[in-house]
Design goal:
The protein is built from 1 helix and 28 strands. The protein has 343 residues and is mostly beta strands. The chain has a 4-stranded antiparallel beta sheet with strand order 1-28-27-26, with no helix packed on it. It has a 4-stranded antiparallel beta sheet with strand order 2-3-4-5, with no helix packed on it.
Length: 343
């Protein structure tokens, strides 16, 4: 009798424990899922996938690079192809692998490994075409009005170019290959991350370091808040940090990131409360800046194929207070309903 009593007690305890575990699991699944598992809208902008893409800060435009269509510019409000630009892409060495849209949508910078081009969004015309002499291009950024260009290179240098005057500043703070760069809309402050485990925020006029952010592995992604409040830096070993751009102090570290969660795109919300990230694993995540907690996550649509394939999230932008646009290597631009309203 006593043995049966304890056995029954043990079974009840196990059942209760399992129920709690299921409830907790369910809570986290709900908490980290958007209000809809499917996008509100999906636009196919490259038939067989793309090599690079970006979405404008206001979610109105997308620019995508693909082998069949060259560089395509889309009006996302109308789902209409607006421009098709020709930048030579006849071999694997000169595929357009990097695209950046200026904060005011005035210009677009596109780059292959060996050359880069500046385009005017109003006229649809090219405003310059340049070829790098040493090393290869790793990442790019463009300022408002196309006044300044930022080119991160494989030899560890970052070049800041004033388009009107041709003035060039080379930032030589890094010791190894550059992986990622970004620049403030006015072109005065830049951030760069490299294989030397370091991200630098620096002055583009003097080339002087403003802040140094140290990591324990190669820095894979950096970004600046266009409003000048935050800097973001992440490495290949799951550490991702948000920094105060006025003081250089750590604001928060993203919690629950995984070793292979390599971020491919970053965007700060207008109110400074939310960060959204895209990853090479097709994952989109929404983060609370104050706590570093992930409040929602989902996966973009993979490229159509006979077997499941992944998708790199190239760009994301808040379309309005409660929706988010993404563009990925699958060739799709997608509009998602956010779980939590973003002001």
């Amino acid at each position: 009798m006593l043995l049966n009593y304890f056995n029954n007690k043990k079974s009840l305890f196990c059942a209760l424990k399992l129920t709690i575990k299921l409830l907790v699991s369910t809570f986290f699944v709900i908490a980290c899922t958007p209000s809809t598992e499917k996008p509100l809208q999906r636009f196919q902008q490259a038939v067989e996938g793309s090599y690079a893409g970006d979405i404008s800060n206001d979610g109105k435009w997308s620019v995508i690079s693909s082998i069949h269509h060259g560089i395509s510019v889309w009006d996302l409000n109308k789902n209409a192809l607006t421009y098709q630009w020709a930048q030579q892409q006849n071999s694997s060495d000169n595929l357009v692998l990097a695209i950046d849209i200026s904060d005011t949508n005035s210009h677009v910078l596109t780059a292959s490994r060996e050359n880069f081009a500046l385009w005017n969004m109003k006229t649809g015309q090219s405003e310059g075409y340049w070829k790098v002499r040493e090393s290869n291009i790793r990442d790019i950024a463009v300022s408002n009005n196309g006044d300044y260009l930022l080119i991160g290179k494989g030899n560890g240098t970052v070049v800041h170019v004033a388009v009107d005057t041709g003035r060039r500043i080379e930032f030589l703070g890094h010791k190894e290959k550059i992986n990622t760069v970004d620049m403030m809309p006015n072109g005065r402050v830049a951030i760069s991350g490299a294989n030397d485990f370091t991200a630098y925020v620096w002055d583009t006029v003097s080339g002087q370091v403003i802040y140094q952010f140290n990591h324990t592995s190669r820095v894979s992604k950096v970004a600046l808040d266009p409003q000048g409040r935050y800097a973001f830096s992440a490495d290949s070993m799951k550490s991702a940090h948000i920094w105060d751009l006025k003081t250089g102090k750590l604001v928060t570290t993203l919690k629950g990131t995984k070793r292979h969660e390599v971020f491919s795109s970053v965007r700060f919300s207008a109110d400074g409360q939310t960060l959204v990230t895209g990853a090479a694993s097709s994952k989109v995540s929404v983060w609370d800046i104050a706590t570093g907690k992930r409040t929602a996550s989902w996966h973009v649509t993979p490229k159509e194929a006979k077997r499941p394939t992944g998708a790199v999230v190239y760009g994301l932008a808040f379309s309005d207070n409660n929706t988010l646009f993404t563009i990925s290597s699958s060739g799709y631009a997608e509009l998602w309903q956010l779980t939590n309203k973003v002001n």
